[in-house]
Amino acid sequence: MKKILLSMIVTFVLWGASISVFASVPEPNGPTPNSRQLEWQTRERIAFMHFGVNTFTDREWGTGNEDPNVFQPGSEYDPEQWVRVLKENGFELIILTAKHHDGFCLWPSAYTDHDVASSSWKNGQGDVLKDLSDACAKHNMKLGLYLSPWDRHDPSYGQGEAYNIFFKNQLREILTNYGTISEMWFDGAKDSNVNQDYDTDSWYTLIHKLQPECVLWGDNAEVRWTGNERGIGGDPCWSRCYNPKTATDEGLTQDEINKLWQNGHPSGNIWYPAEADVSIRPGWFYHASQDNHIKQLDTLVDIYKKSVGRNNVLLLNVPPDRRGLIHENDVARLEEFNNWVEESFSNNLNAKGYVSVSNVRENDNTFSGQQLVDDNFDTYWATDDNVTTGEVIVDYGKVMTLNTFLIQEYITLGQRVDSFAIDIWKDDNWLQVADKSTIGYKRIISVPNMITNKIRLRIKSAQASPVISEFAAYQVGQVAEHQDPNKNFALGKNVIVSDTHSSYSGDNAVDGSLETRWATNDSISSCNIEIDLAESVEFNKVYIKQLQQRIGNYTIDYFNGREWKRAYTGSDLGEEEEIYFENVSGNKLRLNILDRKGNLGPSIYEIGVYNEKIK
Q: What is the average per-residue pLDDT within 433-446?
């Protein structure tokens, strides 16, 4: 009887190990995502929708003095079309600009006279938020809202606590009348001439009281800006981060702090993942002049690989037009983009191979290599606690052609991998084809077409036992390259400036961000900025966004390889202008500011150089 009982116990123990009865789940490492952040990350693609008075005034930033009657969507107005189009094309959440900097509210607000209720549209009975909320509920689409902290209309802006009370009153309106709100978005734009502190702590407390599952985007929040408005995530990109506003307390240098937006930090003490925002058009609001300047498919593919494929969520802006519809050109490109995503990642070659791994946690099948190819994020390969390196080999048993790898960490337990490499078997040896830092929720690696019968993933170093959810390989079709009319030849190029105030360097004017700027000292009246375009390019437009209207007379010159030539002479430059001239070719551009307006030195957020088809 004792022998039978012992045999039953041994059998139970062995059988139990195979089904994880005694399996030890790895301990979390470092900061980990909360439930809101985890759900947000899995959406991957979400949509921004800029819609408001700017749609009808043909501006990007309104003044706050607009006549509410300019807001007049046409008879075809249909937020349900917005939701259908975006849902059918892979988007899981829509963030609407409920109020932009002009202060115009897309819902009837009891706290302002600058809203849809003050417009003759629908006889003052219109409510865009309700229409969109109802459409989202009907089609199972998540809804998020952007509420601009900067309000250029309300007189309480600049009055400290009075404005924070006003702002929270509007928050209560939109958070209690329009169903579940899944993301709140606050940007950093402020009036540089008015001192107004934002009480974000009390805002965030109120939001989570009224909408407990709402994730917060912004400073000191739950999701961070990725550092540019081009949709490009950092490489590497850690969701671990320090709060950039208090990082000096952690001993970080200013250079390290500047990199937090793009790269995060491998030893960061908070979970602060990145969201990459970009518009499908040159502008954020709709402009009829941009109907034929939708981003090409190859541009969107590149953005996808460098956002979603770099541990970011992609926030793609698709602005409704004056009819109140997503324009048909935008719809066509969204369909093309979604088809590419679905077709490219539909056939995982690794699922057809034999998977072997160097170590399995406690020899438990729950953590075996097969979890890497089961298309299930919630299962994962894991090693023993004392093993922080490892290998995965996928043997196809025959020759395959591939050019794309996809890897996912099980981030519920933290972001743990410091570095990894990918090899292919070639000429009876392993050939390294990728060597990267960290993984995160999703990492996409593109390589030239490779022919091989087996591949290897090497975890070179990790902060704790690796927990890898997926390892996939694909043969992705090539996308024809187009000349992108939105290509900014000045972006990221070297600059020389005649004067700089403090840390406001000239590089800030070509970094693609409207949050940074080049500034001169207030004693400076005339100055210049020279941009090295690196090669001779043809262009006919210069975009300039400056701080206030500080530039008086100015010229735009270009260097044609032999001499400097004049492209344009102007005066009284607006805060944001697109300057057109006859096509020229050159490898350098110089903006000469001949004199200033007012008593403050010129300061420029961004300069762009484009070759745009002029109708």
A: 98
